[in-house]
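ERR on first pass: missing label on line 2. Operator R.T. fixed the label and resubmitted. Corrected input:
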Amino acid sequence: MSEKILMKGNEVLGEAAIIAGCRYYFGYPITPQNEVPAYMSRRLPQVEGTFLQAESELAAINMVFGASAAGARVMTSSSSPGISLKQEGISYLSGAQLPAVVVNMMRGGPGLGNIAGAQGDYFQATRGGGNGDYRTVALGPATVQELADLTIKAFDIADKYRVVVMIMGDGFLGQMAEGVALPEPTNLKFEKPWALTGAKDRKQNIIASLRLNPEDALEKLNDELQATYKEITENETMSESYMTDDAEYLLVAYGTSSRICRSALRVLRNEGVKVGLFRPITLWPFPEKELLKAADGVKKVLTVEMSEGQMLEDVKLTCNGTKDIDFYGRTAGMLPDIDEIVRRVKSYGK
Amino acid sequence: MESKGAQFEYIYDKPNSLVDVKTHYCPGCGHGIVHKLVAESLDELGVQDKTILVAPVGCSVLAYNYLDVDGCEAAHGRAPAVATGLKRVHPDNIVISYQGDGDLLAIGTAETIHAANRGENITVIFVNNAIYGMTGGQMAPTTMDKQVTKTTPYGRDTSDVGFPIRACEMLATLERPVFIERTSVHNVKSIMKAKKAIKKALQNQAEGRGYSFVEVLSMCPTNWGVDPQTGADWVKDTMVPYYPLGNFRDR
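pass 2 clean. output:
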């Protein structure tokens, strides 16, 4: 670990990608993630990498497709409306089993919405987003440090399983400057015998999601993808349980919302209220077993999000009617209020 | 009289870069000819083992089943963007973006123009048959004035949907392309010219000269509802007058 330096989330993301060995970045401007392309346009030429500002998000994600098919580590970043445009490419990447890292610094929606941080794209990230039966790994960092660490992890997961990994930050995390120790590279090596390099001394490689022949049926591909997703669920699920051992009430939140919940938790604990916090780090795969363990014995669960209740559905599915679940959400760049969380949890005991 | 074991010399053979499989293309379709011209050019330039072919959405989506080179699918219209990604990672490989008219001039217009404008060192082969073939014959951006298609049952009405777009002329307004030529495959003479243009466009890339674009006017007898010979005649009589053959840029 290096010394701590002060960096913005969006810039740390870029530097961490470079540490992870990413040398190709394709993007299109959109607030609140513009520091990412700005940083990459400055840094990538210094490490003999390629930065290219595409003509659209559609072009950018398809340049990612090409670079990934060529065998390179590649990243694109955007924010909510731009991520919607990239969904076509994300579906194609998933169908063609190509690794890629896609960053969404979420902003207020729907539509053009606004440019402040939000968490309204949870459904889109965890349910597939584009057409067809596929999943993207979705990581939800809560701090600039965790953003750096998860960026490294994202490239390894993408290459290991040949999937798209989404980093689900928000406008606040991207714009926020915090002390960060730049992570070390993992230096894990992933062979890519499928990569398109020219068919020299081997048979032709073909990267495609189109499956028309019965002997190479689409259903077989879908079954293969599901087997991969099962493996990811078993191996890569991440979460954090904080002060849950003796908890009577459980807060569930990810990313920026979880930091607000931590502050509320401190206030409540100081007043003697036994409250814990469960924080999914992988939004997909959702940490079901870990949540059940954290929620074991609690009287009530409060899910807090910067949305109208999206992760809430996974909390409900996981608890499957065994828990009393409340929800508190703010949207459009409004942050959940610490006092409101404290008031609600205290009201549960009355 | 006993044969003296005559010495035969091959004067014509299937190109190495073509796979020996049955075609799925319709009788009279031009794609098979264009595939062969690309394959011959790859053979002659000796670049088969370093070529990556980007296949579009459209009838030629399975082009990688015919050309024995590394192949990559692209979403509809995005072939130049996919080719850009491939070429930026492997600048020494030969990257071909093979596209139809709907792909290149409707859904992928932005990708087409910007890849050309950046001067990506790729080769774009544009097969223009004035119709959407794969989906069953709808109007293309290159469908001719008054041409009847599935979605222009009364003929293309240029006062309603505009005139067919001329790709070569449009791209020739840009500074970076080094080679732009319109060719055709409606008869032997034009096929030989098309071959020359395709080979030049690939050679340019091998020499690192930059973006090369070859449009090929081609036949779609099935969706035009005509026999193959009538199709070839229609290219000559209807398309060529509107889409003049020739070179628009050679630097």
